[in-house]
Amino acid sequence: MSVPGPVKTGALRAPFAGGSGKMAGMWIAPESRSLTRWIVPAIVLGAGGVVAVVMTTDGRIGTGLVALAVLAGYAAALAYRRNEPALTISEGFGSGHRARAHLRAAAMTGDVVTGALVAAVVVQGLRGADIMPYAWLAAVAGGTYAVSALAGGRSI
């Protein structure tokens, strides 16, 4: 098997083919790897557009714009966090394994509550009910995340 020339920066060699120990002859370009990181934020933003169009055609332009803003903010948060590790700001959770477990649990709790708020905005909006209480809570969640990201040392 001939060995190709030097590896370009950012390119990855595909995993071993089968169990033969030989490398597969395929290179994975960085562009194709980064595309998969944007799928979920793009789907969320697209869903926001669809929800906004549905509400606007029903005559609820303000509600559609608020729902679009909530879903766009959620998509932005998902895009920002694609591969970011959790960083501790203080020793509030202690240190070591137990601290990492508590930090992951707190992050997952925040993710689930934020997802539930976004879902409530969409469902209530499509039902024709008032979405503003959920939109305000989603804004508080997004603002809190932005402030904590800035305080953590990484700019938005």
SS elements, strand count: 2
Net shape: elongated
Helix content class? 55-70%
* Biggest beta-sheet profile: 2 strands, antiparallel
Q: Tally the helices: what do you get? A: 5
Strand order of the largest sheet: 1-2
Taking pLDDT < 50 over at least 5 consecutive residues as the criterion, the unreliable ranges are 10-14, 26-32
Q: Assess the beta-strand content as a share of residues.
A: under 5%
Order of helices and strands: EEHHHHH
Distance between the termini: 47 Å
Radius of gyration of CA atoms, rounded to a whole number:
21 Å
| Secondary-structure class | mainly alpha
Average pLDDT, all residues: 76
List keywords for this structure.
156 residues, mainly alpha, two-stranded antiparallel sheet, 5 helices, 2 strands
